[in-house]
Amino acid sequence: MVTEYIIITDNNMSQLDRAANALKDGCLVAFPTETVYGLGADALNPKAVLSIFTAKGRPNDNPLIVHIAQTKTLEILAEDIKPDVIKLAEAFWPGPLTMVLKKAPIIPYETTAGLDTVAVRMPDNDIALELIRRSGVPIAAPSANLSGKPSPTIAKHVVDDLNGRIPFIIDGGACRVGVESTVLDMTSETPIILRPGGVTPSMLEQVIGKVTLDKSIFGLQTVDKPRSPGMKYTHYKPKGEVVVVSGDKSDVFEWVNKKAKKDKQSGLQTVVIAAVEHLPFYSVENVIPYGSIQAPEELAASIFSIFRECDMRGVEKIYVEAIPKTGIGLAAMNRIEKAAGGKVIQL
């Protein structure tokens, strides 16, 4: 298959017409959002949806998120829409919030991985919204990468994984948020965050009151049938082993320096991912700064690109400084700990 690469410049949205028509015809299109690049298909076309799983190598019991361009589309896709759903849509859409709702019959089970619920969001990206409008269909889209690999935050990442496997890749520049959307289950009495993201628990509670965090976010509960993407499988993983190191900073510096020295003696290529303020405290040859310790959104926005850079370098071991699990730091650490397979060194 030859993949057509479309670069959107100067907001020339007419270039989207070919990709939009392809979506209507059941083809796959990779496109940018504010979180990560998505791999889209007509959410109402079971055959098209199944081709997403094939292209990604994704387990078909992992549900997809349906992307829409206007809130009133919810009335077609979902049932039992509570007032709080509308409040959240008004507060955070377009934006990185996905809501899990009772699905309407029009949604095929291929899209929901057999669940009676559907996950829906409105992306905060002009290209994504225009693609949805021009195609005239809701777009089911997971991240546009091979299953299990770090999510793509620039079009080149999509090309690296899916060139020749899908018909269209739309290049709309770098993604702003850098981690996937918050997923909030609105079918329970108290809404449950199934996956943390750019819309934080405190932001949600300011609009609708109490929300809870699913135990699987902290690795306290195994998941047999995921209710949201990102719950069951190891995700976001680079080729090298990821080790998260948490504790007093001086202890972290000392422990990582000792381990990295031993790695070097063993012939392992090692990288440390750390705050820019902490670089002077490492004696390791390869330290990649993610941004400031004062700005957890910088870690969220950069971690997948850094993981992919490590793959390009052939890095075999990656030590990552832990940051507090507050605000978007919760989402960043969720992705990093998933990449580490839950391996966290607590000092």
Shape: globular
Number of helices: 11
From the 3D structure, determine the CATH topology of the largest domain: DHBP synthase
Which series of helices and strands comes N to C? EHEEHEHEHEHEHEHEEEHEEHEEHEHE
- N- to C-terminal distance: 50 Å
> Spans of 5+ residues with little confidence (pLDDT < 50)?
none
How many domain units?
Answer: 2
Task: Indicate the mean pLDDT.
Answer: 94
CATH evolutionary superfamily of the largest domain: DHBP synthase
- Briefly note the structural class of the backbone: alpha/beta
CATH architecture of the largest domain: Alpha-Beta Complex
Q: Report the sheet-strand fraction.
A: 15-25%
Into which percent range does the helicity of residues fall? 25-40%
CATH classification class of the largest domain: Alpha Beta
Rg from Cα:
20 Å
Largest sheet: 12 strands, mixed
Q: What would your notes on this structure say?
A:
By secondary structure, this protein is α/β, with parallel strands linked by helices. It folds into two domains: about 5-220, DHBP synthase (Alpha-Beta Complex); about 240-345, Rossmann fold (3-Layer(aba) Sandwich), CATH 3.40.50.11030. Helix content is about 30%, strand content about 20%. It has eleven helices and 17 strands. The protein has helices spanning about 15-25, 45-55, 75, 85-90, 110, 125-135, 155-160, 200-210, 250-265, 295-315, 330-340; strands at about 5, 30, 40, 65, 80, 95-105, 115-120, 140, 170, 180-185, 190-195, 210-215, 240-245, 270-275, 285-290, 315-320, 345. Strands 1, 2, 3, 4, 5, 6, 7, 8, 9, 10, 11 and 12 form a twelve-stranded mixed beta sheet that branches. Strands 15-14-16-13-17 form a five-stranded parallel beta sheet, with helices on both faces. Helix 1 (about 15-25) packs across helix 6 (about 125-135) and helix 10 (about 295-315) runs parallel beside helix 11 (about 330-340). The longest helix has 18 residues, at about 295-315. The protein is globular.
